[in-house]
Every structure is written in C-alpha cells, then in structure tokens.
Amino acid sequence: xxxxxxxxxxxxxxxxxxxxxxxxxxxxxxxxxxxxxxxxxxxxxxxxxxxxxxxxxxxxxxxxxxxxxxxxxxxxxxxxxxxxxxxxxxxxxxxxxxxxxxxxxxxxxxxxxxxxxxxxxxxxxxxxxxxxxxxxxxxxxxxxxxxxxxxxxxxxxxxxxxxxxxxxxxxxxxxxxxxxxxxxxxxxxxxxxxxxxxxxxxxxxxxxxxxxxxxxxxxxxxxxxxx
Length: 227
Description:
By secondary structure, the protein is an all-alpha fold. The chain has helices at about 1-40, 45-80, 85-105, 110-115, 120-135, 140-150, 155-170, 175-190, 195-205, 210-225. This is Tetratricopeptide repeat protein.
C-alpha cells in the first residue's frame, strides 16, 4: 500500500513538472506571436485571440504550479515520516535536484515564479538576468515595462526600461520596431507626451524606410494629425 502511494505521487510530480514546463513554453511562443500581430495592427481579432490564449496558458501553468507544490509536499512528507530506505531517498533527492537544474536552464522561470508570487521587484531583477542570458530576446524587457506600468504604476521607469533596451542592443528589425512602438504608446497613453511619441514614430520611419513598420508609424502620425 505504502509503495503504491509512493509510485502514484512520483508519477504525479513528474506529470505536473511536464505540464508546468510545457505551459511555460506555450506562453512564450504565443506571447511572441501576439506581439507580432499586435504590432502590425493588421488583425485585431487574431491579436485578441492570441492574448486570450496567453492568459489561458498562464492560468494552466498557475494551476499546475499549485498541483506540483501540493504533490511535492505530500511526497516529501511521506518520505520523512515513513523513513524510506536510503536508496529511495537518494533517488528522490537526485530527481528533485535534476528537476531544479532543468528549471534553472530556463532564464524566464524564476521571473515568472516571482510574478506569480506578486514579488514585482524580484521579478524585475530576474527578468533583467534573463535579458542578460538571452540578449536577443526582447520579452524580458517587455515584461519589465509591463510590471512597471501595471503593477508599480511608474510609467517613467517603463520609459527608461524601453529606451535602455532599444539603445543597448542591436535588435533585429521586428524586435526594434516593436520596442519603439511600445515606447511611443507609453509616452502617448501613460504620460500624455505626444511630442515624444511622435518623435519615436519618426525614428521608426527613418530607421526602417519602405517597410510595414514605417507605414504603421506614418499611419499613427496621421491619426494624431501630425502628417
């Protein structure tokens, strides 16, 4: 009976780890797709659908995290109380250690854990570490600015974050344009500084002439009555 319970719990932990990791990958992939569609402005319905998928994946990952914590705690408690044979304890220790190593290989893992805990400053620091580990991944900077805007209500800090990201790295065209559009959005909607927003759009047009990014920037300036 006791051994059967061990087996069930171990299988449950492994299953939960797999689902937890898969949800994290799905979040990142869908988030990038949403950013592309949202930035292009060509298909708002698709953008909304992708955003819903991101939220759904985040909810799934949170539920898996709770289940994983519950089952892990139960397994550890039974091991301690039941005085499992040293060999089994050794294997469990290695399993937990190996799982930890796999998580650490994902630079975004710790940051998302901090977000789930509501530790905004801790999450920002972890996202900065993720950005250092993956310099060509714009997502950490986007997440930092999002926390600063929505959780810390500090749009000036979000502007500094986005400007630093734009100026500190040689981005690919789509990534650079996205960050610049995001910066212009913060200037215009959060700080009421349309002049700086317009200047950013002009920079997009100058940096990426004859591209859809330039066309989108010109369209935005037209909406503002500046061209």
